[in-house]
From TrEMBL:
One Pfam family named in its UniProt record: Nitroreductase
Recorded GO MF terms: oxidoreductase activity
Location of the Nitroreductase domain: 7-167
Domain of life: Bacteria
Signal peptide: none
Protein's name in the database: Nitroreductase
InterPro entries given in the database record: Nitroreductase, Nitroreductase-like, Nitroreductase/BluB
Length: 190
């Protein structure tokens, strides 16, 4: 796939086929993540690839959290879709969790978060190029303690985001751009 085609066709996928992704493909997209730029070239990102029982546990935990979170939602269809996605991460065969080293210094922490975000976007784009779906998620971090417990993540690591990865079992429409002609989002200065 052409580079710009990848950029334009990547979508947040919330329903996946159960088929496992070959390990070589997982490693290929993680390699793309590992080639991101990083502040002071620290390359301090780390990834946890979750499948099997631990993935199931994560879904059960996020599902329980989602039930409380959506308790007063009036739109029944929206609520059902949210719960279904939360309980199994859309049925994806794996979840990739991105971590960074924490820092008490706010500027360093921000730098680390930006580096890992760059790596995470590489991962999502590479997944798309490989015919895989993904969905950048920070919602589950509202129940961060459970993720830390399930995956035994140490205190000195910060969870940046996670994504289910798998073969898409849905077609997502591209959301419209708010300013497609970049009239308001870009200011040219000379
Ligand atoms: C920082 C960040 C956090 C997100 N968190 C969630 C999330 O918790 N759950 C979810 O379903 N989607 C989440 N998304 C996906 C967005 O909803 C999605 O990217 C957006 O609606 C645009 O759709 P697209 O990715 O198909 O272009 C997140 C995206 C970003 C960049």
């Amino acid at each position: 796939m052409d580079f710009y085609e990848v950029i334009h066709s990547r979508r947040a996928i919330r329903k996946y086929k159960a088929d496992m992704v070959p390990r070589e493909t997982i490693l290929k997209i993680l390699d793309a993540a590992n080639w991101a730029p990083s502040g002071m070239n620290m390359q301090q990102w780390e990834f946890i690839v979750v499948s099997g029982e631990k993935k199931k546990e994560m879904g059960e935990s996020y599902g329980r959290f989602a039930e409380v979170y959506t308790a007063d939602w009036e739109d029944a269809a929206r609520k059902a879709a949210f719960l279904q996605f939360a309980r199994s991460f859309g049925g994806a065969p794996i979840i990739v969790v991105a971590l960074t080293r924490g820092s008490k210094d706010e500027t360093t922490r921000k730098m680390h978060l930006e580096s890992v975000s760059a790596a995470f976007e590489n991962l999502l784009l590479a997944a798309c190029a490989e015919g895989l779906g993904s969905c950048w998620m920070t919602g589950p971090l509202r129940d961060e303690a459970s993720i830390r417990r399930i995956l035994e993540i140490p205190e000195d690591r910060e969870i940046v985001a996670l994504t289910p990865i798998g073969y898409p079992d849905m077609k997502a429409e591209p959301p419209a751009r708010l300013d497609p002609e970049l009239k308001n989002k870009v200011r040219w200065v000379d």
